[in-house]
């Protein structure tokens, strides 16, 4: 008899497995359909011996010391600040847009103060900001919107920015200084030996049993367990009762090149050309020294594994129907991106998992009689 059946061995499932096993002494069965732990953060050494990210670049960054300290219990770190360039009008320029982006693109020599005025003169007034297009044109105007945002967004999401919620492009800042870091968080590091090694350390407990290449539906009625933590797609859990929640997927093409370096930064975006959105080179991220280099091309797709919930009002309404079912389901906790139909960074998923663990522990003391936990489960999810 397991205390917990946890579905999904990514950040949400693995953090909860670790906490429940090591802090409470609970017995955990952790299952995943894939042949590896780590979810989309899984990394591996390719045939050339270069450490790559199987599902595209995962850059850890957070402003939470508590989250950073927690993960530091399972890995040493390599300091790394991610930088991204965009191929625009045949030039490589910094993304997010900053002072150097515009000066390089237009052959100008604006100061930060002049750049603010330059942007303000091009910004278009928008009465009510509702869409991703509204966000961008109200800040930087139509021309930069067309060069940097529209094409990339249409490739990434399969729809025009005017059809997407404002949250998509609101995540990308515009800077009036020369700061070319993609993120500005206080803690910006990469696991020194990779994400997979970090997950292996996290799950190294005699109270945790991991089953890979295992579908939850094949074991849920066979393996005795008291409670469930589910991190998969919430619509799938309920048999797509109200229809499928829309997601965007990705296809990856990994290549190894017989040269030491391919591009000047970890990621180069292609907002105006190509059918892929970006190329990433992992040696920038990992610091690995190797005579060859490995890169990954990313192709957005409507088909495949779910990666990004599509933020549109009708999708949010559909999710709410599933959320109401989830809240009424005893003994099951829904955690993570797919189970809550939200786009989270890695640190946010860790934070959500740690918060869920605290609620579980508050509502369900270790060693309590758990034969009837319907009321306890509802309280923990509230």
Overall description:
With 382 residues, this protein is α/β, with parallel strands linked by helices. Among the domains are: 2-37 and 203-243 and 310-381, Rossmann fold, CATH 3.40.50.720; 98-170, no CATH class. Helices cover 35% and strands 21% of the residues. The chain has 14 helices and 17 strands. It has helices at residues 11-23, 65-71, 99-106, 112-122, 132-157, 167-170, 195-202, 216-219, 234-237, 282-286, 313-327, 337-340, 346-363, 374-381; strands spanning 2-7, 28-31, 43-45, 51-53, 60-62, 77-79, 84-88, 91-95, 187-191, 208-211, 225-230, 247-257, 267-269, 278-281, 293-301, 308-309, 332-334. Strands 8-7-13-14-15-12-16 form a seven-stranded mixed beta sheet. Strands 10-2-1-11-17 form a five-stranded parallel beta sheet. Strands 5-9-6 form a three-stranded antiparallel beta sheet. Helix 1 (11-23) runs parallel beside helix 13 (346-363), helix 4 packs across helix 5 (132-157) and helix 13 crosses helix 14. The model is unreliable at 369-382 (pLDDT under 50). Residues 147-343 form the UDP-galactopyranose mutase C-terminal domain. GO terms for molecular function: flavin adenine dinucleotide binding; UDP-galactopyranose mutase activity. It comes from Enterovirga aerilata.
